[in-house]
Amino acid sequence: MSEEMKKVEQGSITPEERTLGLVCVLLQFLTVVGPLIVWLIKKDESAYLNALGKETINFQLTLLILYVICGVLTIIVVGALLAPLVGLFGLVMIIVAAVKANEGIIYRYPFCFRFLK
């Protein structure tokens, strides 16, 4: 468990942090820029939002890489079949993460590359 996660567990999460965490996760439906803005603005003020923002951005970068791989694999038709599955996976994981963020929990996305640590 990372140092930030331990700090989040020890401290209490305010309702404002929960709301901003939920907004950060739900902004993924639009673009990676939304969670990035929330993270950049609030990362120094809240250990919870710092950890949640990093996790959210890492997941979006992972999805981007998977979509690029699918795009390359469309040459042999496999990518066209995999892209909808990647989209469905992303949709389900964002919904799960939004529910967890509303509870004040940092959801660790499965199969996610952790670029930001």
From TrEMBL:
It is a multi-pass membrane protein. InterPro entries: MamF_MmsF. It is found in: Membrane. The keyword Membrane applies. The chain crosses the membrane at residues 20-41, 61-82, 88-107. Keywords: Membrane, Transmembrane, Transmembrane helix. It holds the Pfam family MamF_MmsF. Coiled coil: none annotated. This is Tic20 family protein. It comes from Victivallis vadensis.
